[in-house]
Amino acid sequence: MTDWVVRPDGGRPEGRGCAHLPQADAAPAPLSEACQECTARGGGGGGLRLCLACGHVGCSDSSPGAHATAHFEATGHPLVRSADPGEAWAWCYVDEVFLQPHGGTPT
Known about the structure:
Elements: E1 4-6, H1 36-40, E2 48-51, E3 57-59, H2 67-75, E4 79-82, E5 90-92, E6 97-101
Antiparallel strand pairs: 1-6, 2-3, 2-4, 4-5, 5-6
């Protein structure tokens, strides 16, 4: 379990907070090791994001499918974290802020 906090500037100059921070400590098991939608179509999406509500794994907005955002739009699940090795950050779609591990720095 990771203790998350809003990144100091929240990813936004006005330093917004995050109403979903208590949900960020959830650590569901990933439902797959790759973007589920891309895999179903025979491709592979990059920049993997793990939904902290249900464990869905989708590709980032930098990938052609943007399946992590599509999952948020379909389900309303607000939080994802990077599922890429060496990265320790999360994003709240609703509050539009980055989160980082408590006491850590984003990577």
